[in-house]
Amino acid sequence: MINILLTNDDGVDSRGLEILAGSLAPLARVWVCAPKTQQSGTGHGITVRETVLVREERIEGAVKAWSVEGKPADCVKIALLALMPEPADIVISGVNNGANLGTDTMYSGTVAAAMEGAINDLPAIALSLHEGSAERREDDFRRAARIGASLYKAWADHTLPIKPGGVLNVNVPDSRAGEIRGFKAVGLGSPRYNDEYVLHEDTGEYRRYKLTGERLPSSEGDPALDTVAVAEGYVTMTPLSVHMTEHTLLRELEQILKTGVAERWGGSPGRGDW
Questions:
Q1: Of 23, 88, 130, 254, which is least packed with CB atoms within 10 Å of its CB?
Q2: In CATH, what number does 3-189+221-243 get?
Q3: Where in the chain is CATH 3.40.1210.10?
Q4: Which DSSP symbol is given to 116?
Q5: What b/e readout covers 95-132, taking b as 16+ CB neighbours within 10 angstroms?
């Protein structure tokens, strides 16, 4: 039977994780390793200078569950390398409480956890739920979990291509968008915020700030972008890769270096100019 490593960045006690574990449990062996506390926006950091504290937890539907006092990528790394007694076949991260669209994926702990799976040559899914009303949050989570389970089944049936080392970033509209209009394969947009650092304390010796702000309505009109499609009621699917090389620029740089122009940047090799 397939082994799923389930994780998130909202913490091991999050409702989205619990509901998704229940949706996946009838389909595969689910192992949970998630942060002990909220880790949204922590990106792809890992703990390298301190020890990592791990506790066993109880989550309905999980073969075994652990919490980690660390970041989302820590959870995936330590689960794969030290905790799971069996190899994982796929990493699923979510259901995140809030969308991870466009350039926000650079900050996202949800996406980072999935990326850590990809770094370890596994296929991965990052599953996020667009912001919605508190009254409908339970229903929204359940709908997102059902969609996540259906995508997992499609991957297991070889009808959804997620290759080892690849991440499928999925965002599910909340109930404000009405009925789901379908699935869309889209690129990353560029969400905008009215960010502001608010001064909380000024002692004369130091100042303490807190970042605040909200996502602004998308001004992008291209329906082929995730920021637009999710607002139109589509489940967005964006394939991501850990390989960040910009190949067009790489080829341009190769051509530039062939002209010998680099010698004007700092001297000639072999002459001690560097």
A1: 254
A2: 3.40.1210.10
A3: 3-189+221-243
A4: H
A5: bbbbbbbbebbeebbbbbbbbbbbbbebbbbbbbbbeb
One-letter amino acid of 179 = E
169 φ, ψ to 5°? -90, 115
Q: What is the pLDDT of residues 234-272, one digit of tens each?
A: 999 999 999 989 999 999 999 988 888 777 776 666 666
**Which two three-digit tokens encode residue 40?**
């949204």
Alpha helices per DSSP H over 157-273: 226-231, 247-258, 263-266
Residue 266 corresponds to which amino acid?
Answer: G
Higher per-residue confidence, 220 vs 74: 74
Specify the amino acid at residue 219: S
Cα angle: 241, vertex 246, 252; to 5 degrees: 160
Torsion 34-38-40-42 (CA) sign: negative
What does the block give as tokens for 48? 């390298």
